[in-house]
Amino acid sequence: MFNFRKIFAPRDMTKGAPWKSILIFVIPMLIGNLAQQLYSTVDSVVVGKYVGDNALAAVGKTFPITMLFLVIVAGIAVGVGIRVSQYFGAKDREKLSLVVGNCISLAFIASVVTGLLGYFFVDYLLVLLNTPKEIISMSSEYLKIIFLGISGMLFYNIFNSILRGLGDSFSALLFLIFSTFLNIVLDLWFVISFKMGVTGVAIATVISQSVSAILSFIKLTKTEALDIKKKYLRPDRATIVDIFKLGLPSGITQGVLSLAMLLIVRLENSFGAAFVTLASVVIRVDGFAVMPTFTFGQALTTFIGQNVGAKKYDRLKLGAKQGTALAISTVAFMTFIILIFGKDVMHIFTDTVEIVEQGAKVLRILALGYIAVSVIQCMSGVMRGAGDTVTPMYISIFTSVVLRVSLGYLLVHLSKTPEKPLGEPFMIYYSLLITWVLGAVLNFYFYRKGRWRKKLIDEMEINEKNG
């Protein structure tokens, strides 16, 4: 008889064929990422169709600002995800419970700090980013509501990371799908029925994410692999230091990448509200190709982490190889679909023909880069799962900050002509393509070089000394 409950139980990835373990684990995550992409896509579609192109631009370019204020959370999520997968693989209930409990306490503090900082500083950021005057007030309105309700987004991401570390990607999928449908209903209700504009979209997002967070927490309290008790919620210095030690490089990376994205947003803003709308539409469409790459990266982090915890080192290389092959195949298929139907999808967001035509051109520029992104995420996922979060950090900072930002501004500057005094805006996307390709080369090189393997050997020696 089919055991439905087994689907939602933590998944042990230390047994069986690596590709099968990764595929079974990643399928619900892929569906979940599709739902998450639909989540943000629906926001853009509703405001684009029922409020206008400026509203679409206002909502579409707020993501980098939100992520800038979530850098600490990103670090906590990565750190706890690694330790959860390792302690779950080692069957260490006490340490697993302690790291989850401390993570919940850290997340509560982070939600208060992030919400206050975001609310009071968002207007200054929008001005600093040279946000077009046509959309600045709507962007501010949207972001302030998001930051007031940021705890829902924050806790959902933290709890989702914990569930993935336990190998339970199905529960996170179920909650995300429910949240997505709730968001769609609330978007349509608030915007169409109550004419609330971007305010309605923001409120719908906050409510939906909060519901997901609550459901995820309830699931954690019922998980048999750990205990959520008051004693585990008390801050433990060693545990907190360990979480930040593992997660801080990723948090720093996220922070630096967010700053880099904001610099690119500032460059995009210089071309006016119409181009910002174009960029907003493109990021929604190409997200369906990019998001699966993050999914496989997360899956490989969990796979490597569990097998490291179980000391099954012979499975690591094969798992990395098979997981990357699955990722490349999936992304290649998604890229093909986007190139065929991209223009049709863009028409869902806007009726402006020029935006659709230019968006299709951007997708053709970026198409070759999606395979490179899958290599980047898989190789960095393997290194992080083994505990080496520093190497991916250095690579990301170099490619996405030093290279992409400088190259983007340089190419735009070199393309200036009397007819185009501001330069050619599409150079922004050529710089992104170059960044992706070089990032893939560097990640593959350092994966083969094996600093992450050396880190494993060092940890094994330390564990042996400590008995």
Question: How would you characterize the overall build of this protein?
Answer:
The structure is a single chain. The chain has 467 residues and is an all-alpha fold. The chain contains 19 helices and no strands. The termini are far apart. The mean pLDDT is 86.
- Report helical residue fraction: over 70%
Helix/strand structural class: mainly alpha
Number of helices: 19
Largest sheet, in brief, is: none
Total strands: the figure is: 0
Radius of gyration: 22 Å
**N-end to C-end Cα span:** 44 Å
Rough shape?
globular
**Order of H and E elements:** HHHHHHHHHHHHHHHHHHH
Mean pLDDT: 86
Strand content: under 5%
Query: Runs with pLDDT <50, length 5+?
Result: none
Q: What is the topology?
A:
Blueprint: H1 4-7, H2 18-50, H3 53-60, H4 63-68, H5 71-89, H6 93-128, H7 136-148, H8 150-165, H9 169-193, H10 197-221, H11 230-233, H12 237-269, H13 273-309, H14 316-349, H15 353-366, H16 369-385, H17 390-414, H18 427-449, H19 451-465
Helix pairs in contact: 2-3, 2-9, 2-10, 2-13, 2-14, 3-7, 3-13, 5-6, 5-8, 5-12, 5-13, 6-7, 6-8, 6-12, 7-10, 8-10, 9-10, 12-17, 13-14, 13-15, 13-16, 14-15, 14-16, 16-18, 17-18
